[in-house]
Amino acid sequence: MTTLKQRLVAQIAQDGPLTVAQYMTAALHDPEAGYYARHAALGADGDFVTAPEISQMFGELVGLWCVDAWAGMGAPSPVALVELGPGGGRMMTDMARVMKVAPAFQQAAHITLVETSPVLRQRQAEALSGLPVSWAAHIGDVPPGPALIVGNEFLDCMPIRQAVRTQTGWRERLVGVRGDDLVFGLSGAAADPSLVPPERADAPVGAVLETAPSLPGFVALLAARFRDHPGRALFVDYGGDGRGDTLQALARHAKVDPLAGPGGADLTAHVDFVTLAELARNAGLDVTGPVGQGAWLGALGIDVRAARLAAARPESAATIERQRRRLVDADAMGVLFQAICLSSPGLPPPAGFA
Ligand code: SAH
Fold first, then answer.
1. How far lies 36's CA from each of 28, 246, 251, 265, 331, in Å?
2. How many C-beta neighbours within 10 Å does residue 139 have?
3. Distance between CA atoms of residues 176 and 350, nearest Å
4. What distance in angstroms lies between residue 154's CA and the mean position of ligand 1's atoms?
5. What span, in angstroms and rounded, lies between the C-alpha atoms of 317 and 201?
6. Which residues have a Cβ under 8 Å from the Cβ of 62 and sit 6 or more positions away?
7. Does 146 contact ligand 1 (Cβ within 6 A)?
8. 7 sits in which H/E element
């Protein structure tokens, strides 16, 4: 059987090198061997652990955040409750449980999971069995109307292109072949000007800039949606500003060579919150944040929630405290991960960002 790597080596040998974005798309979404399409191993026994999988508190607080955001939108009914890239379905499971405190919201919310991977859709169906949910392959397929959209570690798998400053100007980092292996190289010609914003063009030799080519279209789609109907989108992710090489591959909780085994490891890059906020503002959306995940969860009441859970299950108090710290501490996920909210103009401030 040919592996995805062998297929890519053959393709590159014939047609020339791939951009990093093209490589990421193949490695993550190839229908036969892409990481998400086929192998996605999330959770403690898998390749990486995300905030909702660390503790139920994360999804619960996101669920309460949605209840508050919905009230601030004038409590529209129906309202689309959309999760982008739900992975194993853990966050929506915890969100749905706390939504019971607001029966009117629970009634109004039509849950849609935006997921491309058939393997993960199956897993989400199992996690959420009993709940009325539907699936879409793309946010653009979710019917128009008021919406609350949430995504944890969704934007970090948006493919990126990389520009590298060399002695002779900006070049694009490309994936080529040497023998039977995939290797990084640089374009012979100057990098596409869209990869090098003028205000960043003057960076020192060795500097790397990252651009997600699909981000502008994604933001435009949210903006159009939130112009016609009230809406709010919450993203939590590894934060960055588009500077530096942040392409990373994770397998079994360890960083691995991103080119060694395409399809076998998760591939991500830090989200450029500066560009995301700028695109959203230019499209007429209100932008709140980004703020650190620790500060955001703190403002939403994670300490109170942790204390309640610990009181209900004293035998698990130490575990709950460890989980809380992992989510909020500055040397864990509290600062590197950030929350940002994009909203229809004129809505009240979203919770947790004060
Ligand atoms: N949100 C989950 C999983 C994060 S992993 C958690 O926090 O645990 C990324 C998720 O996004 C996976 O479910 C993956 O299949 C999905 N995904 C990645 N790219 C996507 C795309 N372009 N469209 C829809 N879903 C995508």
1. 5, 20, 13, 9, 28
2. 18
3. 45
4. 5
5. 51
6. 52, 91, 94, 95, 150, 152, 234
7. no
8. helix 4-15
Q: Please, which pLDDT band fits residue 43 given cuts at 50, 70 and 90?
A: confident
Pairing of strands 79-84, 109-114: parallel
Distances (CA, A) of 167 to 20, 215, 220, 280: 21, 29, 36, 34
Q: For ligand 1, what atom is nearest to the CA of residue 37?
A: 15
pLDDT of 124 above 90: yes
Amino acid identity of residue 221, one-letter, is L
Burial zone of 106 (CB within 10 Å; 0-12 exposed, 13-18 middle, 19+ buried): middle
* 30 CA from centroid of ligand 1 (Å): 14
Average pLDDT over residues 108-136: 95
Distance CA 251, CA 275 (A): 29
In three-state form (DSSP H/G/I as H, E/B as E, the rest C), the secondary structure along 62-74 is: HHHHHHHHHHHCC
Kindly give the number of the ligand 1 atom that is closest to the alpha carbon of 53.
Answer: 8
pTM for the whole structure? 0.97
Dist. CA 87 → ligand 1 center (Å) = 5
Give the model's confidence band at 127: pLDDT under 50 very low, under 70 low, under 90 confident, else very high: very high
